[in-house]
Amino acid sequence: MSFGQLVVGPPGSGKSTYCNGMEQFMKAIGRPVAVINLDPANDTVGYECAIDIGELICLESVMSELELGPNGGLIYCMEYLAEHMGWLHDRLAALSSDTYLLFDCPGQVELYTINKGMKQIVEVMTRRWGLRLAAVHLVDAHYCAEPFKYISVLLVSLSTMVQLELPHVNVLSKIDLIESVGTLAFGLEYYLNADRLDLLLEVGSAATAGAHGNKRAAASSADENSGLSDDDDDDYVHERRAAMLSSKAAERAGVSATPAADALAQRYQSLTSALSELIEQFSLVRFTTLNIQDKESVHALLGLLDKTNGYMYSGLQNDVLGVAFKDLRTDYETVGVVQEKYMKERPLEDDLGALL
Fold first, then answer.
1. Cα(8)–Cα(262) distance, rounded to whole angstroms?
2. Of 50-64, 169-183, 331-345, the least confident
3. Are 53 and 84 in contact (CB under 8 A)?
4. pTM beyond 0.85
5. What DSSP string describes 248-288?
6. What phi and psi values does residue 257 have, to the nearest 5 degrees?
């Protein structure tokens, strides 16, 4: 019986970097490991590739011969692999039975949310071949600083969990860059637990209102210079002034919303609120953190994954990591250390507000 990880996530989330770093870490602790590249668009891998899908099918050839774009070509390649799993099976069989497997997968979100190709591949590997896999879903940590993007990340994570039906670990990767695009509204633990999303909706609405209020002020200034006025019956003028914000959010931000903008904002708010409720009703999505350049961070994540796919209970764990499990921090300690290391100091009442 072989164990491994299916590394998935949006483009740019750091999947190949993760596989490279995890491979180096496993070799350092004495664990046999092999990285399998299942991304036909990834022809410049930075790790030692044991098996490469490029030997089976070429994305550029598919796009050229079938006149497909990058997305269509990737879907075709994965469906082709699903129909030729014997090729993959023969190459996996040539590896040692105690080899830990890392599958570097494509970054196209559709493959894990709506398309059946990747699901078929996973079902063959787990149900027919008996591989014990855990899905590692990587997303950029900086999305936490943008409320509506964070909710989108939650929805994609949930869809991926439901579609793949694997033991699953969601990871905020590049945690050292978590506040690179802005300061978080709440403490790190709030984003890891993904609870009380209504609080985040309020923050997002207020931020949107403030941003559009500034745009409206600029538009008014431009109107004065151009001779346009509120009385002009000009669709272009009203469209330019429209903003997606609710009356409540606009009032909080100190700006006023047009009737058209208010109606559009209410529909947007209703949709976002419904999606947030759906995510909370499933109560499946939680996150852990990772800085692939920090060996303690990699150590903690690998320990969690070894529990998730059952590797630590298999009797194969004779490496250094197995001995070091007793040194792993608790979740509470981990959150505190990560927040102190990578986030700006924040008032205690800010974090308490999310719990009240």
1. 38
2. 331-345
3. no
4. no
5. HHHHHHT----HHHHHHHHHHHHHHHHHHHHHHHHT---EE
6. -105, 145
> What is the residue-averaged pLDDT of the chain?
83
Q: What is the CA radius of gyration of the chain?
A: 24
Residue 300 CA to residue 171 CA, distance in Å, equals 12
End-to-end Cα distance, the chain: 47
Handedness of CA 354, 304, 19, 60 (dihedral sign): negative
What are the beta bridge partners of residue 8?
137
Q: What does the DSSP 8-state code read for residue 120?
A: H
* Helix ranges, the chain (H): 15-28, 59-66, 70-83, 85-93, 110-113, 117-123, 147-164, 188-193, 197-226, 235-241, 247-253, 259-282, 295-308, 320-324, 331-342, 348-353
Three-state DSSP class for 183?
A: coil
Best CA proximity match to 92, nearest among 141, 133, 44: 133
Confidence grade of residue 258 (pLDDT, cut at 50, 70, 90) = low
Q: At what angle do helices 70-83 and 85-93 cross, to 10 degrees?
A: 70
CA distances from 136 to 215, 253, 326, 334 (A): 40, 39, 23, 19
On whether the CB atoms of residues 248 and 262 are closer than 8 A, the answer is no
Token digits of residue 188:
């790190």
pLDDT of residue 243: 41
User: 210 with 257: CB under 8 angstroms?
Assistant: no
Count CB-CB contacts under 10 A for residue 43: 12
